[in-house]
Amino acid sequence: MTRSTPSRPKASTNPGPKRRPRPATQAGQRPAQASPSPHRDPSADPAHEAAKASLAWAHSARFYTTAALLKQLPASDLPEIAFVGRSNAGKSTAINTLAQQRQLAFASKTPGRTQHINLFHLGPKAAPDQVWTDLPGYGYAAVERTAKLRWQEVMADYLAWRRNLCAVVQMVDCRHGFTDLDKQLLGFVAPRVRNGEVKLLVLLTKADKLNRKEQAESLRAAQAVLAELSTDESDIGLTLFSALNKSGVGDVAGMLNEWALSPEAAEAIAAATALAAAEAEAAAIAAENGDVTADPPPDNMT
Q1: Residue 301 has what pLDDT?
Q2: What is the pLDDT of residue 136?
Q3: Which of these, 266, 262, 194, 282, lies nearest to 234 by C-alpha position?
Q4: pLDDT value for 229
Q5: What is the pTM of this model?
Q6: β-pairing, 165-173 with 199-205?
Q7: Fewest CB within a 10 Å sphere: which of 27, 69, 161, 205?
């Protein structure tokens, strides 16, 4: 997975090494034996260790809260990553695969039925360092038009105004590419992507359904769409993703981990949040008991 350049987003597939044909041998002649190569321990590879650490971090994801309306979302200073995608694009499955948990994100048997915003914390329980936000799937035909319009407005407002939104991860079925609704959703967050305020990562899901040639065509088509958002300030990524064969999972977990807070920053926010909660609780108890302390007199009155 690569990040975009100002001209157009780049993406690459990793088809893996090709097998070399065995050299031809004459009848009755045995092929030469290859000299033994020293054993390489994959765990000693820094890239392998980094991917392993990122996946362990992603596995820490746990449910935080749910909201039916934007005003019910808690204020937060943690970087928030929004997961969006059409119904049936594999959004919930992608979240569960990244977290290596079977039922972290709810995947309804009836697409379009999940109509709540679900938030998940990541990192240490005492000091979370990131929030994942699972937005409702969009575009399913069986959902009433009124509900579609309501959630379209909710997502538009969330993507345009959520203060601590750090990045958007959009799932696009690689077999169909960007639909009109996918492009419409991109339009909601486009200004913040272009100025670099919000990062964008597009996962071309269900990549296992296509052969290599079809995957390359899907990547090229997606690049053409994303090129319209690319600027000197934008940070746009594009990769093939498969929950079935786990392609792209390690790379995506690594990028999400890069966007998490440092341990020091996370601990500072956790301490400030705990202090604010304690003060609010004390104020509530005082109000309930009728213990209202008068403000101290000004200095010139003492």
Answers
A1: 47
A2: 86
A3: 194
A4: 96
A5: 0.80
A6: parallel
A7: 27
Q: 3-state secondary structure string, the chain?
A: CEECCCCCCCCCCCCCCCCCCCCCCCCCCCCCCCCCCCCCCHHHCHHHHHHHHHHHHHCCCEEEEEECCHHHCCCCCCCEEEEEEECCCCHHHHHHHHHCCCCCCCCCCCCCCCCCEEEEEECCCCCCCEEEEECCCECCCCCCHHHHHHHHHHHHHHHHHCCCEEEEEEEEECCCCCCHHHHHHHHHHHHHHHCCCCEEEEEEECHHHCCHHHHHHHHHHHHHHHHHHCCCCCCEEEEECCCCCCCCHHHHHHHHHHCCCCHHHHHHHHHHHHHHHHHHHHHHHHHHCCCCCCCCCCHHHC
Q: How many residues does the chain have?
A: 302
CA angle, 144 then 105 then 48, to 5°: 140
- pLDDT average per 10 residues of sequence, the chain (302 residues): 52 47 45 52 76 96 93 94 91 95 76 74 97 85 68 88 97 96 94 98 97 97 97 97 95 97 97 92 89 54 45
Instruction: Count the Cβ atoms, other than its own, within 10 Å of residue 129.
Output: 23
Pairing label, strands 236-240, 2-3: antiparallel
Is residue 193 within 8 Å of 230, Cβ to Cβ? no
Q: What confidence score (pLDDT) does residue 5 get?
A: 47
42 phi and psi angles, rounded to 5 deg: -60, -25
How many whole angstroms separate alpha carbon 62 and alpha carbon 31?
Answer: 55
Burial grade of 130 (CB within 10 A; 0-12, 13-18, 19 or more): buried
What is the Cα–Cα distance from 238 to 230, expressed in whole angstroms?
12
Answer left, alpha or beta for residue 80, where phi above 0 means left and psi between -120 and 50 means alpha: beta
